[in-house]
Protein backbone atom coordinates (compact mmCIF):
# COMPACT_ATOMS: atom_id res chain seq x y z
CA UNK A 1 0.00 0.00 0.00
CA UNK A 2 1.49 3.36 -1.02
CA UNK A 3 2.06 6.40 1.14
CA UNK A 4 -0.86 8.83 1.23
CA UNK A 5 0.68 12.29 1.22
CA UNK A 6 -0.74 15.50 2.57
CA UNK A 7 -1.78 16.79 -0.83
CA UNK A 8 -4.39 14.11 -1.39
CA UNK A 9 -7.10 16.15 0.29
CA UNK A 10 -7.50 19.57 1.81
CA UNK A 11 -10.84 20.02 3.54
CA UNK A 12 -9.57 22.92 5.60
CA UNK A 13 -8.59 26.38 4.49
CA UNK A 14 -5.75 26.33 7.02
CA UNK A 15 -3.69 23.26 6.30
CA UNK A 16 -1.17 24.00 9.05
CA UNK A 17 -3.74 23.75 11.83
CA UNK A 18 -6.01 21.14 10.33
CA UNK A 19 -6.87 18.56 13.03
CA UNK A 20 -4.77 15.93 11.27
CA UNK A 21 -1.71 18.21 11.14
CA UNK A 22 -1.89 20.59 14.09
CA UNK A 23 0.24 18.38 16.38
CA UNK A 24 2.91 18.09 13.69
CA UNK A 25 2.84 21.85 13.08
CA UNK A 26 3.20 22.53 16.81
CA UNK A 27 6.05 20.03 17.08
CA UNK A 28 7.77 21.45 14.00
CA UNK A 29 7.65 25.00 15.37
CA UNK A 30 8.76 23.92 18.85
CA UNK A 31 11.73 21.87 17.63
CA UNK A 32 12.98 24.59 15.27
CA UNK A 33 12.52 27.21 18.01
CA UNK A 34 14.68 25.15 20.37
CA UNK A 35 17.36 24.62 17.72
CA UNK A 36 17.35 28.37 17.15
CA UNK A 37 17.56 29.19 20.87
CA UNK A 38 20.60 26.95 21.20
CA UNK A 39 22.26 28.53 18.17
CA UNK A 40 21.56 32.09 19.38
CA UNK A 41 22.49 31.39 22.98
CA UNK A 42 25.85 29.77 22.32
CA UNK A 43 27.46 32.96 21.07
CA UNK A 44 26.44 34.76 24.25
CA UNK A 45 27.61 32.02 26.60
CA UNK A 46 30.82 31.09 24.77
CA UNK A 47 33.14 33.73 26.30
CA UNK A 48 32.27 32.41 29.77
CA UNK A 49 32.62 28.80 28.62
CA UNK A 50 36.14 29.25 27.26
CA UNK A 51 37.12 31.22 30.36
CA UNK A 52 35.89 28.41 32.63
CA UNK A 53 37.83 25.84 30.65
CA UNK A 54 40.90 28.10 30.14
CA UNK A 55 40.60 27.34 26.43
CA UNK A 56 40.57 30.69 24.65
CA UNK A 57 42.58 29.20 21.79
CA UNK A 58 39.57 26.98 21.01
CA UNK A 59 37.07 29.83 20.89
CA UNK A 60 35.86 29.31 17.31
CA UNK A 61 35.91 25.53 17.35
CA UNK A 62 32.43 24.91 18.85
CA UNK A 63 31.07 26.65 15.74
CA UNK A 64 33.52 24.96 13.36
CA UNK A 65 32.91 21.38 14.48
CA UNK A 66 29.16 21.98 14.51
CA UNK A 67 29.25 23.23 10.91
CA UNK A 68 31.41 20.33 9.74
CA UNK A 69 29.34 17.65 11.47
CA UNK A 70 26.09 19.30 10.30
CA UNK A 71 27.21 18.87 6.70
CA UNK A 72 27.78 15.16 7.28
CA UNK A 73 24.50 14.76 9.16
CA UNK A 74 22.58 16.55 6.42
CA UNK A 75 23.80 14.17 3.75
CA UNK A 76 23.25 11.07 5.88
CA UNK A 77 19.77 12.26 6.85
CA UNK A 78 18.82 12.88 3.25
CA UNK A 79 19.99 9.45 2.19
CA UNK A 80 18.17 7.68 5.02
CA UNK A 81 14.99 9.67 4.30
CA UNK A 82 15.08 8.52 0.67
CA UNK A 83 15.87 4.87 1.37
CA UNK A 84 14.01 4.20 4.65
CA UNK A 85 11.65 7.14 5.00
CA UNK A 86 12.01 10.29 7.11
CA UNK A 87 10.46 8.74 10.23
CA UNK A 88 13.48 6.57 11.00
CA UNK A 89 15.95 9.44 10.61
CA UNK A 90 13.85 11.85 12.69
CA UNK A 91 13.27 9.30 15.44
CA UNK A 92 17.04 8.89 15.68
CA UNK A 93 17.91 12.59 15.37
CA UNK A 94 15.59 14.01 18.03
CA UNK A 95 16.89 12.01 21.03
CA UNK A 96 20.44 12.35 19.70
CA UNK A 97 20.14 16.13 19.63
CA UNK A 98 18.76 16.10 23.18
CA UNK A 99 21.65 13.84 24.22
CA UNK A 100 24.11 16.31 22.71
CA UNK A 101 22.55 19.09 24.78
CA UNK A 102 22.88 16.99 27.95
CA UNK A 103 26.51 16.14 27.20
CA UNK A 104 27.28 19.83 26.64
CA UNK A 105 25.54 20.78 29.88
CA UNK A 106 27.61 18.25 31.83
CA UNK A 107 30.90 18.78 29.95
CA UNK A 108 33.90 18.81 32.31
CA UNK A 109 36.29 20.10 29.65
CA UNK A 110 36.44 21.80 26.26
CA UNK A 111 37.18 18.43 24.61
CA UNK A 112 33.88 17.00 25.87
CA UNK A 113 32.03 20.17 24.85
CA UNK A 114 33.40 19.81 21.33
CA UNK A 115 32.27 16.18 21.31
CA UNK A 116 28.81 17.38 22.31
CA UNK A 117 28.83 19.90 19.47
CA UNK A 118 29.69 17.11 17.02
CA UNK A 119 26.71 15.10 18.29
CA UNK A 120 24.48 18.17 18.01
CA UNK A 121 25.74 18.94 14.51
CA UNK A 122 25.24 15.42 13.21
CA UNK A 123 21.76 15.09 14.68
CA UNK A 124 20.81 18.66 13.75
CA UNK A 125 21.76 18.06 10.12
CA UNK A 126 19.67 14.88 10.03
CA UNK A 127 16.83 16.68 11.79
CA UNK A 128 16.49 19.60 9.37
CA UNK A 129 16.60 17.64 6.14
CA UNK A 130 14.19 15.01 7.52
CA UNK A 131 11.72 17.74 8.50
CA UNK A 132 11.94 19.11 4.95
CA UNK A 133 10.95 15.71 3.57
CA UNK A 134 8.14 15.40 6.11
CA UNK A 135 6.77 18.82 5.12
CA UNK A 136 6.46 17.53 1.56
CA UNK A 137 4.53 14.50 2.79
CA UNK A 138 2.30 16.14 5.39
CA UNK A 139 1.14 19.40 3.80
CA UNK A 140 -0.70 19.96 0.52
CA UNK A 141 1.65 21.42 -2.07
CA UNK A 142 -0.05 24.80 -2.22
CA UNK A 143 0.29 25.12 1.58
CA UNK A 144 3.99 24.24 1.78
CA UNK A 145 4.99 27.94 1.47
CA UNK A 146 2.98 28.55 4.67
CA UNK A 147 4.74 25.63 6.38
CA UNK A 148 8.16 27.06 5.52
CA UNK A 149 6.91 30.48 6.58
CA UNK A 150 6.09 29.01 9.98
CA UNK A 151 9.52 27.42 10.09
CA UNK A 152 11.14 30.81 9.43
CA UNK A 153 8.90 32.50 12.01
CA UNK A 154 10.14 30.01 14.61
CA UNK A 155 13.51 31.84 14.53
CA UNK A 156 12.08 35.26 15.45
CA UNK A 157 11.56 34.80 19.20
CA UNK A 158 14.99 33.15 19.64
CA UNK A 159 16.58 36.01 17.65
CA UNK A 160 14.87 38.57 19.90
CA UNK A 161 15.21 36.85 23.26
CA UNK A 162 17.81 34.10 22.86
CA UNK A 163 20.93 36.19 23.55
CA UNK A 164 19.20 37.95 26.47
CA UNK A 165 18.01 34.73 28.10
CA UNK A 166 21.38 33.05 27.56
CA UNK A 167 23.11 36.06 29.07
CA UNK A 168 20.88 36.05 32.15
CA UNK A 169 21.34 32.31 32.63
CA UNK A 170 25.10 32.59 32.23
CA UNK A 171 25.35 35.51 34.63
CA UNK A 172 22.91 34.44 37.35
CA UNK A 173 22.86 30.63 37.13
CA UNK A 174 25.26 28.77 34.82
CA UNK A 175 26.03 28.61 31.13
CA UNK A 176 25.20 24.90 31.39
CA UNK A 177 21.49 25.78 31.49
CA UNK A 178 21.79 27.20 27.96
CA UNK A 179 22.11 23.58 26.84
CA UNK A 180 20.52 21.49 29.57
CA UNK A 181 17.38 23.59 29.89
CA UNK A 182 16.40 22.81 26.29
CA UNK A 183 16.77 19.02 26.37
CA UNK A 184 13.40 18.21 28.04
CA UNK A 185 11.61 20.54 25.62
CA UNK A 186 13.13 18.70 22.65
CA UNK A 187 11.53 15.52 24.00
CA UNK A 188 8.15 17.28 24.11
CA UNK A 189 8.60 18.37 20.49
CA UNK A 190 9.45 14.79 19.55
CA UNK A 191 6.29 13.52 21.24
CA UNK A 192 4.19 15.95 19.18
CA UNK A 193 5.78 14.74 15.95
CA UNK A 194 5.57 10.99 16.54
CA UNK A 195 1.88 10.40 15.59
CA UNK A 196 2.36 12.09 12.21
CA UNK A 197 5.65 10.28 11.64
CA UNK A 198 3.80 6.99 12.02
CA UNK A 199 1.24 8.02 9.38
CA UNK A 200 3.43 9.74 6.80
CA UNK A 201 7.03 8.78 7.55
CA UNK A 202 7.29 5.26 6.18
CA UNK A 203 9.53 4.27 3.33
CA UNK A 204 8.22 5.06 -0.15
CA UNK A 205 7.72 2.50 -2.89
CA UNK A 206 9.77 4.16 -5.62
CA UNK A 207 13.21 3.08 -6.71
CA UNK A 208 16.00 5.07 -5.03
CA UNK A 209 18.96 6.02 -7.20
CA UNK A 210 22.28 4.47 -6.19
CA UNK A 211 24.60 7.16 -4.82
CA UNK A 212 27.70 5.40 -3.47
CA UNK A 213 30.14 7.40 -1.40
CA UNK A 214 27.79 10.19 -0.31
CA UNK A 215 28.86 10.16 3.38
CA UNK A 216 32.53 10.31 2.37
CA UNK A 217 31.78 13.18 0.02
CA UNK A 218 30.11 14.97 2.93
CA UNK A 219 33.18 14.40 5.08
CA UNK A 220 35.34 15.73 2.25
CA UNK A 221 33.21 18.85 1.88
CA UNK A 222 33.28 19.49 5.62
CA UNK A 223 37.05 18.95 5.76
CA UNK A 224 37.56 21.24 2.78
CA UNK A 225 35.58 24.06 4.37
CA UNK A 226 37.37 23.68 7.71
CA UNK A 227 40.73 23.71 5.92
CA UNK A 228 39.87 26.84 3.95
CA UNK A 229 38.54 28.67 7.00
CA UNK A 230 41.63 27.75 9.02
CA UNK A 231 44.01 28.80 6.26
CA UNK A 232 42.52 32.28 5.76
CA UNK A 233 43.84 33.30 9.18
CA UNK A 234 47.36 32.03 8.48
CA UNK A 235 50.22 33.98 6.95
CA UNK A 236 52.68 31.09 6.72
CA UNK A 237 53.32 28.87 3.68
CA UNK A 238 51.54 26.12 5.56
CA UNK A 239 48.32 28.13 5.26
CA UNK A 240 48.63 28.14 1.46
CA UNK A 241 49.27 24.40 1.39
CA UNK A 242 46.25 23.68 3.59
CA UNK A 243 44.07 25.95 1.43
CA UNK A 244 45.16 24.15 -1.73
CA UNK A 245 44.42 20.77 -0.18
CA UNK A 246 41.04 22.09 0.95
CA UNK A 247 40.12 23.10 -2.59
CA UNK A 248 41.28 19.76 -4.01
CA UNK A 249 39.08 17.91 -1.52
CA UNK A 250 36.10 20.28 -1.68
CA UNK A 251 35.45 20.52 -5.43
CA UNK A 252 34.96 16.81 -6.23
CA UNK A 253 32.92 16.42 -3.05
CA UNK A 254 30.56 19.19 -4.16
CA UNK A 255 30.09 17.61 -7.58
CA UNK A 256 28.84 14.47 -5.85
CA UNK A 257 26.69 16.23 -3.23
CA UNK A 258 24.86 18.70 -5.48
CA UNK A 259 22.40 17.97 -8.32
CA UNK A 260 24.01 17.76 -11.75
CA UNK A 261 24.26 21.20 -13.33
CA UNK A 262 24.18 23.16 -10.07
CA UNK A 263 27.53 24.88 -10.57
CA UNK A 264 26.47 25.75 -14.15
CA UNK A 265 23.16 27.26 -12.91
CA UNK A 266 21.09 24.90 -15.06
CA UNK A 267 17.40 25.94 -15.04
CA UNK A 268 15.05 24.08 -12.76
CA UNK A 269 16.12 22.48 -9.53
CA UNK A 270 19.91 23.08 -9.93
CA UNK A 271 19.60 26.87 -10.17
CA UNK A 272 17.47 26.89 -7.01
CA UNK A 273 20.14 24.99 -5.10
CA UNK A 274 22.85 27.35 -6.36
CA UNK A 275 20.75 30.40 -5.52
CA UNK A 276 20.35 29.25 -1.92
CA UNK A 277 24.12 29.16 -1.43
CA UNK A 278 24.67 32.52 -3.10
CA UNK A 279 21.95 34.18 -1.04
CA UNK A 280 23.25 32.79 2.24
CA UNK A 281 26.79 33.84 1.38
CA UNK A 282 25.81 37.38 0.36
CA UNK A 283 23.57 38.03 3.35
CA UNK A 284 25.70 36.58 6.13
CA UNK A 285 28.96 37.96 4.76
CA UNK A 286 27.58 41.50 4.72
CA UNK A 287 25.95 41.01 8.12
CA UNK A 288 29.14 39.72 9.74
CA UNK A 289 30.78 43.15 9.59
CA UNK A 290 27.80 45.33 10.52
CA UNK A 291 28.37 45.27 14.31
CA UNK A 292 32.09 45.90 13.86
CA UNK A 293 31.51 48.94 11.65
CA UNK A 294 28.81 50.42 13.84
CA UNK A 295 30.97 50.01 16.95
CA UNK A 296 34.30 51.19 15.56
CA UNK A 297 33.18 53.83 13.07
CA UNK A 298 29.97 55.20 14.56
CA UNK A 299 30.52 54.62 18.27
CA UNK A 300 27.55 52.33 18.88
CA UNK A 301 27.47 50.26 22.05
CA UNK A 302 27.79 46.48 21.58
CA UNK A 303 24.08 46.09 22.32
CA UNK A 304 23.10 48.83 19.87
CA UNK A 305 25.38 47.43 17.18
CA UNK A 306 23.57 44.10 17.41
CA UNK A 307 20.09 45.57 16.90
CA UNK A 308 20.28 45.48 13.06
CA UNK A 309 20.75 41.71 13.26
CA UNK A 310 17.52 41.44 15.24
CA UNK A 311 15.77 43.78 12.78
CA UNK A 312 16.98 41.54 9.95
CA UNK A 313 15.47 38.51 11.69
CA UNK A 314 12.11 40.27 11.93
CA UNK A 315 12.32 41.19 8.25
CA UNK A 316 13.12 37.54 7.49
CA UNK A 317 9.87 36.48 9.14
CA UNK A 318 7.90 39.16 7.28
CA UNK A 319 9.37 38.00 3.96
CA UNK A 320 8.54 34.37 4.71
CA UNK A 321 4.96 35.38 5.51
CA UNK A 322 4.67 37.33 2.25
CA UNK A 323 5.91 34.46 0.09
CA UNK A 324 3.41 32.11 1.70
CA UNK A 325 0.64 34.22 0.17
CA UNK A 326 2.27 34.85 -3.19
CA UNK A 327 0.40 33.06 -5.97
CA UNK A 328 1.02 35.08 -9.14
CA UNK A 329 4.79 35.15 -9.54
CA UNK A 330 6.86 32.19 -10.67
CA UNK A 331 9.32 30.82 -8.16
CA UNK A 332 12.35 32.04 -10.10
CA UNK A 333 10.82 35.53 -10.07
CA UNK A 334 10.23 35.34 -6.33
CA UNK A 335 13.84 34.30 -5.64
CA UNK A 336 15.08 37.03 -8.02
CA UNK A 337 13.03 39.49 -5.95
CA UNK A 338 14.81 38.15 -2.88
CA UNK A 339 18.20 38.82 -4.49
CA UNK A 340 17.03 42.33 -5.30
CA UNK A 341 15.99 42.99 -1.71
CA UNK A 342 19.25 41.58 -0.30
CA UNK A 343 21.12 43.75 -2.81
CA UNK A 344 19.10 46.77 -1.66
CA UNK A 345 20.08 46.05 1.92
CA UNK A 346 23.76 45.80 0.98
CA UNK A 347 23.43 49.07 -0.95
CA UNK A 348 22.12 50.68 2.25
CA UNK A 349 25.23 49.43 4.07
CA UNK A 350 27.42 51.09 1.45
CA UNK A 351 25.85 54.44 2.36
CA UNK A 352 25.54 53.82 6.10
CA UNK A 353 28.68 52.14 7.41
CA UNK A 354 31.62 54.31 6.24
CA UNK A 355 32.68 57.38 8.23
CA UNK A 356 30.37 60.21 7.23
CA UNK A 357 27.61 57.76 6.35
CA UNK A 358 24.07 57.73 7.69
CA UNK A 359 24.04 54.90 10.28
CA UNK A 360 20.25 54.76 10.71
CA UNK A 361 20.04 53.45 7.13
CA UNK A 362 21.45 50.18 8.47
CA UNK A 363 18.22 49.46 10.31
CA UNK A 364 16.02 50.08 7.29
CA UNK A 365 18.37 48.35 4.89
CA UNK A 366 18.82 45.24 6.99
CA UNK A 367 15.10 44.85 7.51
CA UNK A 368 14.76 44.88 3.70
CA UNK A 369 17.63 42.40 3.31
CA UNK A 370 16.03 40.14 5.91
CA UNK A 371 12.80 40.23 3.92
CA UNK A 372 14.73 39.12 0.86
CA UNK A 373 16.13 36.14 2.75
CA UNK A 374 12.74 35.18 4.17
CA UNK A 375 11.21 35.29 0.70
CA UNK A 376 14.00 33.36 -0.97
CA UNK A 377 14.92 30.69 1.57
CA UNK A 378 11.35 29.49 1.89
CA UNK A 379 10.76 29.67 -1.88
CA UNK A 380 13.88 27.69 -2.77
CA UNK A 381 12.82 24.98 -0.31
CA UNK A 382 9.31 24.80 -1.76
CA UNK A 383 10.67 24.74 -5.33
CA UNK A 384 13.17 21.97 -4.62
CA UNK A 385 10.54 19.76 -2.99
CA UNK A 386 8.00 20.34 -5.75
CA UNK A 387 10.55 19.52 -8.46
CA UNK A 388 11.88 16.37 -6.78
CA UNK A 389 10.53 12.85 -7.15
CA UNK A 390 9.60 11.34 -3.80
CA UNK A 391 12.71 9.15 -3.74
CA UNK A 392 14.97 12.16 -4.41
CA UNK A 393 13.55 14.62 -1.87
CA UNK A 394 16.06 13.69 0.80
CA UNK A 395 19.06 14.05 -1.50
CA UNK A 396 17.87 17.32 -3.00
CA UNK A 397 16.90 18.79 0.38
CA UNK A 398 20.33 17.89 1.74
CA UNK A 399 21.91 19.52 -1.33
CA UNK A 400 19.98 22.69 -0.55
CA UNK A 401 21.31 22.71 3.01
CA UNK A 402 24.86 21.92 1.88
CA UNK A 403 24.73 24.81 -0.58
CA UNK A 404 23.51 27.11 2.21
CA UNK A 405 26.24 26.03 4.63
CA UNK A 406 29.07 26.19 2.11
CA UNK A 407 27.89 29.52 0.70
CA UNK A 408 28.07 31.02 4.15
CA UNK A 409 31.36 29.41 5.12
CA UNK A 410 33.22 30.22 1.91
CA UNK A 411 31.99 33.78 1.37
CA UNK A 412 32.25 34.80 5.03
CA UNK A 413 35.77 33.39 5.07
CA UNK A 414 36.69 35.22 1.87
CA UNK A 415 35.14 38.40 3.26
CA UNK A 416 37.29 38.10 6.34
CA UNK A 417 40.38 37.89 4.14
CA UNK A 418 39.39 41.07 2.29
CA UNK A 419 38.66 43.05 5.44
CA UNK A 420 41.82 41.84 7.19
CA UNK A 421 44.02 42.54 4.16
CA UNK A 422 42.82 46.15 3.86
CA UNK A 423 42.64 46.92 7.58
CA UNK A 424 45.12 49.05 9.48
CA UNK A 425 45.52 49.98 13.12
CA UNK A 426 43.81 53.33 12.54
CA UNK A 427 41.17 52.01 10.10
CA UNK A 428 40.25 48.41 11.01
CA UNK A 429 37.06 48.54 8.92
CA UNK A 430 38.55 50.04 5.76
CA UNK A 431 37.91 46.82 3.85
CA UNK A 432 34.18 46.67 4.64
CA UNK A 433 33.13 49.16 1.94
CA UNK A 434 35.01 47.38 -0.90
CA UNK A 435 33.63 44.07 0.32
CA UNK A 436 30.04 45.35 0.29
CA UNK A 437 30.52 46.77 -3.20
CA UNK A 438 31.70 43.35 -4.41
CA UNK A 439 28.68 41.68 -2.80
CA UNK A 440 26.39 44.21 -4.45
CA UNK A 441 27.93 43.49 -7.84
CA UNK A 442 27.31 39.75 -7.31
CA UNK A 443 23.65 40.23 -6.30
CA UNK A 444 22.62 41.94 -9.54
CA UNK A 445 23.71 39.26 -12.05
CA UNK A 446 22.39 36.58 -9.69
CA UNK A 447 18.91 38.13 -9.94
CA UNK A 448 19.23 38.28 -13.73
CA UNK A 449 20.32 34.63 -13.74
CA UNK A 450 17.10 33.66 -11.93
CA UNK A 451 14.90 35.68 -14.27
CA UNK A 452 16.49 34.06 -17.31
CA UNK A 453 16.19 30.59 -15.75
CA UNK A 454 12.49 31.22 -15.21
CA UNK A 455 12.00 31.68 -18.96
CA UNK A 456 13.72 28.38 -19.82
CA UNK A 457 11.86 25.10 -19.55
CA UNK A 458 13.83 22.80 -17.17
CA UNK A 459 15.36 19.73 -18.74
From TrEMBL:
Keywords: Membrane, Transmembrane, Transmembrane helix. This is Putative MFS family arabinose efflux permease. Gene3D superfamilies: MFS general substrate transporter like domains (1.20.1250.20). SUPFAM superfamilies: MFS general substrate transporter. GO terms for molecular function: transmembrane transporter activity. It is a multi-pass membrane protein. It is found in: Cell membrane. It holds the Pfam family MFS_1. The keyword Lyase does not apply. GO terms for cellular component: plasma membrane. Residues 24-459 form the Major facilitator superfamily (MFS) profile domain. It comes from the Bacteria. The chain crosses the membrane at residues 23-46, 58-78, 90-116, 122-139, 146-169, 175-194, 214-232, 238-258, 278-297, 303-322, 334-354, 360-385, 405-423, 435-453. It comes from Saccharopolyspora dendranthemae. InterPro entries: MFS, MFS_dom, MFS_trans_sf.
Amino acid sequence: MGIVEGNTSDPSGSALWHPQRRAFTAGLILVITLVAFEAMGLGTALPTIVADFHASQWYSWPFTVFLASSAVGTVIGGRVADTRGPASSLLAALPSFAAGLVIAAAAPSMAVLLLARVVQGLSGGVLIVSLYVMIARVYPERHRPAAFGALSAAWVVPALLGPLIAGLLTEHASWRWVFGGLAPLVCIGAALLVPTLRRFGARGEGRVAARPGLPWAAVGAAAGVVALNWSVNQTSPLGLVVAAVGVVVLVPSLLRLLPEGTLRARPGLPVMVLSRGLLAGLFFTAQAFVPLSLTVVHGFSPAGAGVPLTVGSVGWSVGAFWQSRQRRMGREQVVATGFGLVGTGVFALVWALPAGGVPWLVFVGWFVAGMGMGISVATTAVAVLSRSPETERGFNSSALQISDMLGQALLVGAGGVVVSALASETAPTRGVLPLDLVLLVVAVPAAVMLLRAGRVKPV
